[in-house]
Amino acid sequence: MNIFPSTPLAGLRVIEMGQLIAGPFAGKTLGDFGAEVIKIEPPGAGDPLRNWRLLRHGTSVWWQVQSRNKRSLALDLRAAEGQDVARRLIAEADVLIENFKPGTLEGWGLAPERLQALNPGLIILRISGYGQTGPYRDRPGFGVVGEAMGGLRHLTAEPGRVPVRVGVSIGDTLAALHGVIGVLLALHHRTAHGGAGQVIDVALHEAVFNCMESLIPEYSAFGAVREPAGSALPGIAPSNAYPCQDGWVLVAGNGDSIFKRLMTAIGRDDLGGAPDLADNAGRVARVAEIDAAIGAWTQPRTVRAVLDALTAARVPAGKVYTARDIAEDPHYQARDMLLAQATRDGDTLTVPGIVPKLSATPGGVRASAPHLGEDSEAVLRELGLSAEQIAALRQRGIVQ
Fold this sequence. Notes:
Elements: E1 13-16, H1 22-32, E2 36-41, E3 55-56, E4 59-60, H2 61-66, E5 70-74, H3 80-91, E6 95-98, H4 104-107, H5 112-118, E7 123-128, H6 143-149, H7 152-155, H8 170-192, E8 199-203, H9 204-209, H10 215-222, E9 239-244, E10 247-252, H11 256-265, H12 269-272, H13 280-285, H14 287-298, H15 303-312, E11 317-319, H16 323-328, H17 330-334, E12 338-342, E13 348-352, H18 376-382, H19 387-395
Parallel strand pairs: 1-2, 1-6, 2-5, 6-7, 7-8
Antiparallel strand pairs: 3-4, 9-10, 10-11, 12-13
Helix pairs in contact: 1-8, 6-8
Keywords: Transferase
InterPro entries: CoA-transferase_III (IPR050509), CoA-Trfase_fam_III (IPR003673), CoA-Trfase_III_dom3_sf (IPR044855), CoA-Trfase_III_dom_1_sf (IPR023606)
Pfam family, one: CoA_transf_3
């Protein structure tokens, strides 16, 4: 049971069947705020994320973040005995998370209607490439494909050049966060309206599309197709990245009064006082001229000098941070966004802190990421299985 009752999700039991990014990120987020998360992994290699990117002691350091505050049950869901164990677990759970291809749960005899017949209050979060319905539902989908279909990838490029990745798996993460919102909404509804659960259907491309701002209304009203604009913010000026002696700064001088202060700071009161530049529409018409003026001012200066001057002028500006910049930044440290987290291999890693920050019931790291199947026996004993039954499952390879 959860031993941190001050956390907002204390007492909530979550079964996570997903792997890699979207489903497990949703489980991580719930776990950070006190939910008991039991992660079911296939015996053998477990979740492939254990072996992604940079490894330490044979395990991905990404895994240490994604699977903190979770317990690991290595269970073969392709076997009937494994499916029986899963049903027993789910019968006592509040939330089930899965991010398999549509139809996978049904093929295992774990269709939502069957599970909710066992547990009417069960909330099921299903994350997939294209959703559980529609003509594309059976297509395989990853986050990068969702980013493309959702409209994001088309915009992440310099004009005329190849669209590029954002740099992280943003499609998966956005889907996970939408899924967490859905779980919290469903929990509220369950409490307020008689205890019934429901199914939450999140498609990767829809989560991305939901964040695309005015993309479709502009097409609807004007037939306008937004095109790549590099580091600029199309239709809003000035807002861009500008070169310095030793790097780049982002400057957002697009508010009317901010623009005047920015022009004073760079010695261009002629632009700051120009009547046709007093509002955004006028500035957009002359954006190339404004960007050139700002770039001419930043280029001979260091990033530090530019930021000091613009901070003094109350103009929003910032450095383009690397991992080193983040790790050494005092603001990150002051807000507990860089946590020292012990691993079960005896290391200590610096990992991202908890977001969002709640004043009365903050989240936290209660347990480091588990080894594969580390909690299998304990979870099965809590279900009421005897030592002999557990040994038999282990001998047949159903449990590791």
